[in-house]
């Protein structure tokens, strides 16, 4: 059974290793949008993000300790 979302996809699995779209399909402006000279700067750590990371670490350590 073929879903309507998959109707434009070939039935063979040979296309899995190939690109679906080429530069000609999306336009050359998509290839030029990356500015390699601008460095990526890290932002400051927010309290909310740090809390969830610490909670995840504690939960993971708790699961590992109880599993042993």
What can you see in these coordinates?
- The mean pLDDT is 75.
- With 68 residues, the chain is an all-alpha fold.
Task: Indicate the topology.
Elements (H helix, E strand, L loop, with lengths): L22 H4 L20 H21 L1
Essential attributes:
68 residues, mainly alpha
Task: Provide a compact summary of the structure.
This protein has helices spanning 23-26, 47-67.
H and E string: HH
Helix content: 25-40%
Q: Quote the beta fraction.
A: under 5%
Task: Please give the oligomerization state of what you see.
Answer: single chain
Biggest sheet statistics: none
**Distance separating the two termini:** 46 Å
How many runs of DSSP E, i.e. beta strands? 0
The overall average pLDDT, rounded, is 75
């Amino acid at each position: 059974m073929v879903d309507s979302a998959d109707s434009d996809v070939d039935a063979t699995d040979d296309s899995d290793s190939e690109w679906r779209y080429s530069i000609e399909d999306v336009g050359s402006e998509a290839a030029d949008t990356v500015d390699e000279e601008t460095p990526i700067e890290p932002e400051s750590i927010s309290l909310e993000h740090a809390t969830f990371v610490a909670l995840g670490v504690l939960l993971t350590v708790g699961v590992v300790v109880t599993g042993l």
